[in-house]
Structures are given as C-alpha cells and as structure tokens.
Write the structure tokens for this entry.
Amino acid sequence: MPFNKPNSATYDLLMSRRSVKAKDMVGPGPDRATMEKILAAGMRVPDHGKLHPWRFMVLTEAEREKLGNLIAEGLVVEDERDPRVAEKMKGYACQGPVLVVAISRIDPNSHIPVFEQELSAGAACQNMLVAATALGFASQWLTGWAAYSKTVASGLGLQENERIAGFLFFGGHDRMPTERPRPEFEAHVDWGVPQV
C-alpha cells in the first residue's frame, strides 16, 4: 500500500465529520471486524519513542452494564451522591451500541515527556472517530466525572500509570447531525511569530 497518497475525499470527511450524541445512536453498531478496523486506525498515530502509550477496552452488552454499576458505586462512595441519582447514571455506559474505553498508558521511565505520551492517546481517540465516520458509523468522545473516578479506574483494572482518556461511543444514526458553531479562523491562527 502506498503511503501519504493524496485523497481529497479524506479532507472533505475531516471538514464534515460531526459527533452524534451517544444517547441518540441506534443499532446496529459496528461489528467485530469493523471495530478492529476502527481500533487499528487508532493505533496509527504520532507516537514519539514508539511507546504505544494507550490501550483500548471494548465493551458491549453486559460489560457496559458493569461499567454503569461502577459509575453508580463511585458516585456514592467518592462524591456522596444520593443513591437514587447514582442509579440513574448507570445508563451512561449503555448509550450507543458499542463503547470503547480509551486508556492513556504512560511510561514513567521513558525520556519522552508525559505530555507527549498523553497527546498520542488523544490522537488515537481522534483517529477512531474519523475512521468510524469513514466506515459509515456515528461516534462521540465523552469524558465527564466517570473518567476521573478512582472507583471506575480500579474496577476496570487500570494500573497506576493509566488513566481514562475518554469513553468513545459508536453506533448508527437515523438522522443527519446539524452543524455547531465553529471558532473564528483568524482568532486562532497566527502567521509567523507574534510581535511582543
């Protein structure tokens, strides 16, 4: 396969990709073979030092319910939330047909800065969203309270050098998403070094 082959359709996809709310996704979601393609795209990212500072946990069906239970437990134990509120949050993990927990995995002994390792995990998440769109599926990258919960991290078996980079939901969609406000181009771009 030739590398870096120009493809204007890829640019069009990047400029038209939209997240679809996980709660609005419909089934069926990507099957195992399609998820393997999405995950493989997630692994083709800039990775200074070739550390592979990420891993992915694919959750379907009952596994998402287990995560929902962990979230509810953590809300009560860590955040002292009313158990009735926590019970409602169990459904968070069951949005969308397929859920990938993207995990940033830092090598603390590497000379590569931690920030660069974390950026690689973020790039992996973005690649998966783009790949899902290219393959005809909806996607959304969420974080929120559960991404920082010690109860959730422990229940998912995360090690001390790992943290959740995001919950990536994948599924189908039965209506076209609408555009959202975008940043003003010139307000975020400097051509050259600014005068100080």
Notes: The chain has six helices and four strands.
